[in-house]
Amino acid sequence: MKAPTEKLSVNRIYDYPNLSGDSISNINWSPDGRYLSYILGDRNGDKAEIRAYDVNNREGLTLFDFSSLSGSTAAASLPGQALDGLTPLHDWRSRRVQSAGPMQYQWFPTGQLLLVSVAGHAPQIVDFAQSRQVPMTNDKTPVRDAQVSPDGRFISFVRGWDLWLKGVAYGSREFPVTYASSEQFRSATGDSMGDLLVGFTHWWSPDSQAVAYIQTDESQVPIFWYANLTSKTGQNRPERYPQPGDPNPTIVLKVARGPRTIMIDTSKWPGYYIARVMWLPDARHIALQMLNREQDELQVVLADSYTGATRTVLVEKDPYWINVVDDWRFFSDSRRFLWSSERDSLRNLYIYDINGTQLAQLTDGAEACISVRGLDEKNGAVYYQVFPEPHTDAMLSRVDFATGPDGYDISAPETITTEPGSHFAHISPDFEYFGDFFSTAIRPPCLDLRNMAGERVHPIETNRTEELARYGLRDYTFQSHEPAQLGIPSDRMKVYSKLLEPARREKGKKYPVIVYVYGGPLPGGFGLARNVLNYWRPVPEMWLQMMAQSGFGVFTLDNRGSNAAARGHDFETPIHRQLGHVELADQLAGVEYLKTLDWVDPDRIGILGGSFGGFMTLNAMMRSDNAFRAGCAFAAVTDWREYDAVYTERYMQTPRSNPEGYEESSIRNYASQLENPLLLIHGGSDPNVHLQHTIELIEKFIIEGKEYGLLIYPNQVHMSFFGMGQSPARLWTRITKFFKEALT
User: Are 74 and 58 in contact (CB under 8 A)?
Assistant: First the structure.
């Protein structure tokens, strides 16, 4: 990267045109494999379109312009942008469960129609070839979770707390699938499931003759009331929010087939979560993943949708916990399925039959399968994401299999993408091409069409960012370290970091360093909750680049427990029942490394983090014998007894079974040990980490006579701090001022 001609500033980072260029999201393929589609958000923040690339004619086209919806403003809801709006008062739908986004679309099976959903508008049926669109419904009552049936004849959706259907043909009426559901007894709504069953909670059968859906009894789930800080009448907002040890919703699965409704028999698994649901291709059977509350046992259960009868197919057990992912795929014969497991630490791929017999192990190498991207049954291949060592770059891999006289013949896995950076593949239904969503730590995402050998066929969205080049973003130095030596088996595993030295560093001069931390576990996904990645993440990476331009060193280390999908289960299990202990020890090992660098001032090291990273920041400021001169924590958990039950119990179990672990991890217990400057920031409307976490810590500081800085953003939610826009700009302006005053 050539030398910068301009220096970054907070105002420029968060202003338009977006330095990340155009946003590319919701990448999908038409069912016939002709169109690679995506939502393109203009870098100026005022336009969004559904775009597509026609692989037959080698041309791009616009399928839908979101500005065609009256009152729609792209700048307020572009994918990847911060949303500052509040949920209406007393809307009981949990705001902790993140929806897929404010703009969504689905293909009809013909490949000629789209169902377009935008928050605040009725879903639209779009015939892009004829440039026509009609609302799915004229009823003004809001709907959510709209889905097109596999045959394209019906659309299902949730209105209020009930599941509804509507025919697509002109004049078709709407009719309810469920009746008289309520806030306490909900249909097709997974709101109190933490990070389980997010997204849709009803599923069409492949033949479009039946719909499976969950029903939950929330009546025993405690209500959390949090204040509307801008209300003139002191109103509060209610939310069903089970904390560790609290009653969870009771969950059942039902199947509506014509006038009949069948209850799936899950009585053999009392208290279990229905973690995943999938129809088999035969359109009769449904597969469920049943996870016990302790989250250390997962059963794959096969259900008969006609009778409700169930049987166990496969059981996974783990002495710590099981990470639930979405890697399973059923073969067209409905007799076999693809499965992934971390039973050997690294996640590997297997083929099982529906009697639970393992037919083949497809992978067993040094690279964990992060996410299955496609099962090509015809050609005998599975495509999946990997992060090869040093686990910074995401690549697409392939493993081939074939049936032989003695079982399966398995070929050695092959890595398809090779260019350094992060490649996330979206594979066409016919397995002829894939859309390559590619970025690096200093290069915003672009979208290319590639063939299945990995060769570029056509650049679809180059996303040129000429202005960004003027700021001269610099490459990080990625490296490995020994972790803290704690006398446990994972001590032998390397931890990885990235470092950015101060710009124009002068020999013999000492400089301050900011440590940016997340450090928390997260199951599934693409393994992107880590920080040490060669992947474009504008927040907070551009701010960190700005601070390096201003004379700060910037350092990030992924401790044990950090979204360990790429490292294997053994890398994350040391945190079991003791959140914050091993993680902090590894971060302090990183500080010791920094102190060996001749340009680092050991007395001017600061730390910054949000959410779990906020917890880690507070942990470091009060439990590290003043290793950090200053710290800033935003949206921080301060006591795990008051966070989400599903997430917390996975790692800590319940307060009743692990009282010592919860007590030791409570940041409030260490308030007396705060000695250095600390800035606390929280959103007053945060539905994920409630404001009470910060308020209760402040109460301890007052008792102990400790000084602290505090910023409360009344109308901000949890993800506001991780997004773009004016509110985050004000936040990061204050953080910049804090560190410049505390460390220089």
Answer: no
Return the pLDDT at 75.
37
> Tokens for 548?
């390096």
Distance, CA of 39 to CA of 50 (rounded, Å): 4
Considering 317, 337, 362, which residue would you say is the last residue of a domain? Answer: 317
Give the number of other Cβ atoms within 10 Å of residue 698's Cβ.
Answer: 18
Torsion of CA 82, 85, 90, 96, to 10 degrees: 0
| Residues in contact with 232: Cβ distance below 8 Å, sequence separation at least 6, in sequence order | none
| Beta carbons of 606 and 631 less than 8 angstroms apart | yes
Give the CA dihedral 25, 421, 391, 533, nearest 10 degrees. Answer: -60
Q: What is the pLDDT of residue 129?
A: 86
628 inside domain: yes
Question: Is residue 419, in this structure, part of any structural domain at all?
Answer: no
Number of domains making up the chain:
2
322 closest CA partner among 493, 524, 520, 495: 524
Contact 349, 338 (CB under 8 A): yes
Residue at a domain's end among 292, 317, 342 = 317
Q: What is the CATH number of the domain that holds 297?
A: 2.140.10.30
- pLDDT at position 484 is 97
Query: Which ranges of the chain have pLDDT less than 70?
Result: 1-4, 70-101, 191-195, 197-199, 524-527, 724-725
Give residue-wise pLDDT tens across range 565-620.
899 999 999 999 999 999 999 999 999 999 999 999 999 999 999 999 999 999 99
Q: Give the pair of three-digit tokens for residue 341.
A: 């497991």
* Domain assignment present for 118: no
Report how far residue 138's alpha carbon sits from residue 625's, in angstroms, rounded to the nearest whole number: 63
Total count of residues recorded for the chain:
744
In a domain, 282, yes or no: yes
Taking only Cα atoms into account, the Rg of the chain, rounded to an integer number of angstroms, comes to 26
pTM for the structure as a whole = 0.94
Of the candidates 651, 604, 649, the residue with the CA atom closest to the CA atom of residue 631: 604
301: tokens are: 């259960």
Could you read off the pLDDT of 449-468 as tens digits, one per residue?
Answer: 999 999 999 999 999 999 99
| Domain ranges, residue 143 | 137-317
CA–CA separation, 440 and 474 (whole Å): 11
Look up the CATH number of the domain holding residue 605: 3.40.50.1820
